[in-house]
């Protein structure tokens, strides 16, 4: 059944007017917006936008955290047939120039003074950006820029416009069609300018409904919206599925309160990339290291049991009576309180995606009774391509194709997808569209993988990144850098990794330590340090990372196809890779080519056999200042292992 987002809103407002639609925490108190109140707000905003000149087909950028009035503005613009374009709120102002100019954007709705300042800074480069509305007025009282107004002013204008244009809003909603453009999401831009992915109401709503049907989602779900709205994953979970199902979306007060807000809300449906789950577990393990011997002993005892029988229980399989009784005691004493501490006491379905999740991390959450699963999708597929069914969650796959999805593999192993959720196209970029959409309707994902015997999809790497070693003992061997990097990042001490090896005789890598996990490790050993650079250069820390790399090599040796990807040499970088320094995307994807060029002196040192290398790097600090970080980095050799040959 086709629909539009505005029609879905009006259906909820008519059928369940007093049911909560959105909650926002303001000054420590949760404020609720009902469906009927939301519909009134959207109607007023739509009239205000129309009065300001917004019409069908116009693009409106939306920049900010998850906020009810920003959601309402997106709905209001869609009701008029305009297209919201969410952008990352933590991006530097120059990063907005291309999306605004590429999208011919004349209107912007932002959260606060920070976002207003960034847009005003680039206004000369974006002369068509005529109107900017802000939600939070703090700090903006004395601003007098042309076209700058508050959302309160826009709402007031809308109320006046509504008095003289009765029936206008409903007529505009009825004009809307399911095949109309609904939103545009810009890609990460890892290899150049980002591309604007255009989705229709039909593509987004169809995938939202397919995902909801797969996991039996209802209007009674509670969701915490804390990831960037510009990322299509957050947009699908807290916007498209929200309107498809009618559940409650909760907006945290700030990024600093997310952990507290998570515990207060107790979501039933939760999504996070692996780094969030890693961070939560790291916090738990750090606290346990500081616990008393009795408490720590109980925790270790019951976690050993949980790892042995917990996943079996989550898979719906039977275990012995004694183990079941033992696990029940553990649930009362350890697992239940731990789920509550994490904020997962009510979670019925939890998903992770975006990066591979470590098997130990995956097993930990499932072992304590959290139904953590993986999914596969992308901006171009409206997220929902493959999901893991309950009782069939595996750490090394990303699920089965869900309703409406077909998958096939090319001879080179690239995954092709056909789905109702495919992008309409890249905005003003027909050449790029033609590269990813075949004439017969298949989308080229760019990922390499295969379907296992159970029909689950397994991802190896980006197809373009899968290379070959050249020369030496492993000449011609497959090299999958992302696969290697993910294995390294499975260790809590390693935050990021960048592997090199294509067309080289051996694999080498850079490593970023996790300063919190390694810092806690160092403190327990009375190892003093003064900041990241000092900690990363400690001989003891380098030895710790060497052990992690050694274990990865031993693991890679078990796969004769990827045994050649074992790391021969590595170094620990003197600074954290950062999006502000151009080394990562806003979704924390490593820009491997950029890093290879920027740190060429380090890459050369790895392959020239040097034992150390001096490096000085320009950086941007959080307060906007520029500076530099320098260090002499140790380069470490690591043993490799012969491949284990499997019997045919």
Model description:
- The chain starts with a helix and ends in an 11-residue tail after the last strand.
- The model has no long low-confidence stretch (mean pLDDT 93).
- The strands form 7 sheets. It has a 5-stranded parallel β-sheet with strand order 4-3-5-6-7, sandwiched between helices. Strands 12-13-14-15-16 form a 5-stranded mixed β-sheet.
- It is globular, with a radius of gyration of 26 Å.
- It is built from 21 helices and 28 strands.
- Among the domains are: 5-271, ANL, N-terminal domain (Rossmann fold, 3-Layer(aba) Sandwich); 466-637, GMP Synthetase, Chain A, domain 3, CATH 3.30.300.30.
- By secondary structure, the chain is of the alpha/beta class.
- Strand 1 and strand 2 form a beta hairpin.
**Tell me about the biggest sheet?**
5 strands, parallel
- Quickly name the level 1 CATH class of one domain: Alpha Beta
With helices defined by DSSP (H or I, 4 residues minimum), what is the helix count? 21
Mean pLDDT: 93
**How are the strands of the biggest sheet laid out side by side?**
4-3-5-6-7
The name of the CATH topology of one domain is Rossmann fold
Helix content: 25-40%
The 3D shape can be described as globular
Distance between the ends: 50 Å
Low-pLDDT stretches: none
Just name the CATH architecture of one domain.
3-Layer(aba) Sandwich
β content, as a range?
15-25%
Radius of gyration: 26 Å
Determine the structural class based on helices, strands and strand pairing. Answer: alpha/beta
**Name of the CATH superfamily of one domain:** ANL, N-terminal domain
Number of strands: 28
